[in-house]
Automatic annotation (TrEMBL):
GO terms for molecular function: hydrolase activity. InterPro entries: Calcineurin-like_PHP, Metallo-depent_PP-like, Metallophosphoesterase_sf, Pesterase_CT488. This is Ser/threonine protein phosphatase. Residues 3-196 form the Calcineurin-like phosphoesterase domain. PANTHER family: PHOSPHOESTERASE (PTHR31302:SF22), TRANSMEMBRANE PROTEIN WITH METALLOPHOSPHOESTERASE DOMAIN-RELATED (PTHR31302).
Length: 229
């Protein structure tokens, strides 16, 4: 049994938004994902850190969900900024049940457990460096509240945090989220969102007591990152 993380699958099996238009790094990415996941076992767990499907609704994303569901192991799903299909937890869980998608659960306003480890997370929020003027403080405050709800649900367990947006970026910090990571003694924070040339601006490794790791699919060559056994 092992724990993995991967973000930004950007599946479009029922829509015309293949990421292959973004260059060689995305060529055959669906088959590469399938091949990489073939090394996982049914008892393994993968946290998927947002931007999973380009579908505009649950129904439009169904083929992408079926692809994810068929991959080995259990999957915990986070919301990304392009997950337009995202709905209430109750509606998503009902949709999964109705379509017999049995290996996926939502990580949102809650936490999941992997042995003694608490898996916490939310989408997060991010001041895009070229778009600071349109930042919505209400969204940031809501995401901070969701992350703290998740961390509180973990109790005294060791906490790992999974986000879509990076809370730490070359030349940028999100102090509100970083404060929570420090306050709750988070050991590891995995995040996605960054692609292509943005990879070089990611910050990885230890920072103020938390280890940071970029898990965007194209950064990892579509191979889930093993967190622990």
């Amino acid at each position: 049994m092992a724990l993995y993380a991967l973000g930004d699958l950007h599946l479009s099996l029922n829509s015309n938004k293949s990421m292959e238009i973004f260059g060689d790094g995305w060529q055959d990415y669906v088959s590469r994902l399938k091949e990489a996941f073939s090394a996982l076992r049914p008892e393994d767990v993968t946290v998927l850190c947002g931007d999973l499907s380009w579908g505009m609704s649950l129904e439009e994303s169904l083929e992408d969900f079926r692809f994810i569901d068929a991959l080995p192991g259990k999957k915990y799903l986070l919301k990304g900024n392009h997950d337009y299909w995202w709905n209430t937890a109750a509606k998503m869980e009902r949709f999964f049940r109705e379509h017999e998608l049995t290996t996926m659960e939502i990580l949102h306003n809650n936490c999941k457990f992997y042995g003694e480890l608490a898996l916490c997370g939310t989408r997060g929020w991010f001041y895009e460096l070229d778009n600071q003027g349109t930042h919505d403080e209400k969204v940031l405050l809501r995401e901070i509240g969701r992350l703290e709800t998740s961390l509180k649900a973990a109790g005294e367990h060791e906490k790992l945090v999974f986000l879509h947006y990076p809370p730490l970026y070359q030349g940028y910090r999100c102090p509100e989220i970083l404060r929570l990571l420090k306050e709750y003694g988070v050991k590891l924070c995995c995040y996605g969102h960054l692609h292509g040339a943005s990879h070089r601006r990611a910050i990885e490794g230890m920072w103020d007591g938390t280890e940071f790791s970029l898990v965007s699919a194209d950064y990892l060559k579509f191979v889930p990152k093993k967190i622990c056994e």
